[in-house]
Amino acid sequence: MIKKFIHQFASPKTFISKVDTYYNFIFYSALLIYVLSIIWGILFTPEDFVQGNSFRIIYLHVPASFLSQSLYLAMGICSITFLIWRVKLAAYLIVAIAPIGAMATFIALISGSIWGIPTWGTWWQWDARITSTLILFIMYLGLISLHSSFSNYEKADKLLSWLVIVGAINIPIIKKSVDWWSTLHQSASITLTDKPTIDPVMLYPLIGTVIGFFGLIICLVLLSSKNQILIREKNKSWVKDYV
């Protein structure tokens, strides 16, 4: 029953149809939310008592960090779906998400380094959180390179899926690194179990930037996924009609 449900709503043709229907709404809504939240956070929130204006890079760094991990988790879910139920769209999504995840991780690393200069007095430290995030970035690049090195898509998809699942062990390490080891990073200011420790005047635009950035990244994933589908399904009659 689960297999029937998944295959019913995982048709590449149906996926592209849904993307074409909802893409503009998602993109413009996310762009509006992100731009307004960035303006709010940069121009209208007060300076931080300790960090001054340098804290404002949080409105780029935190969304990028959150998405870098979330996208890998999405790849993990797609990998399980592909290996268990043989849903080919899931395999396409893994390949489509990887470069977007690498980009988000790169932004997180660069923005974190820029933030580290006024905060820590150095742009780089082999801090547990930074190091595990760097490993995530390398994993993304490795997965991209590995898949592109195969001429047989089926073998590449299977190997990639298994490696994504194995590599998922790094996600809880990134998340809990500030709790398990002594690091430069502070503990999470926003959790599901505790009240946020960040002031609401800074918190609300931060939530807005996370939502907006998430929407914009989803749009990139949708475009990348659509491109993957058109490449992998190019011999299907419906693709020829679509193009």
SSE topology:
Blueprint: H1 2-8, H2 12-44, H3 58-85, H4 88-120, H5 128-148, H6 153-167, H7 170-180, H8 200-232, H9 237-242
Helix pairs in contact: 2-8, 3-4, 3-6, 3-8, 4-5, 4-6, 4-8, 5-6, 5-7
What do these coordinates show?
Helix 3 (58-85) runs parallel beside helix 8 and helix 5 runs antiparallel to helix 6 (153-167). The chain has one domain (15-242). The protein has helices at residues 2-8, 12-44, 58-85, 88-120, 128-148, 153-167, 170-180, 200-232, 237-242. With 243 residues, the chain is an all-alpha fold. 30% of the residues are buried. The protein contains nine helices and no strands. The two termini are 34 Å apart. The model has no long low-confidence stretch (mean pLDDT 91).
Key traits:
globular; 243 residues; mainly alpha; 0% strand
What's this entry about, in short?
The protein is mainly α and 243 residues long. It has helices spanning 2-8, 12-44, 58-85, 88-120, 128-148, 153-167, 170-180, 200-232, 237-242.
Q: What is the CA–CA distance across the termini? A: 34 Å
Q: Indicate the radius of gyration in whole angstroms.
A: 20 Å
Helix content: over 70%
The total count of helices amounts to: 9
Structural class: mainly alpha
Mean pLDDT: 91
User: What order do the SSEs take from the amino end to the carboxyl end, as H and E?
Assistant: HHHHHHHHH
Query: What low-confidence regions span 5 or more consecutive residues with pLDDT below 50?
Result: none
Largest sheet: none
What is the total number of structural domains? 1
How big a fraction of the residues is strand? Answer: under 5%
Q: Got a strand count?
A: 0
Shape: globular
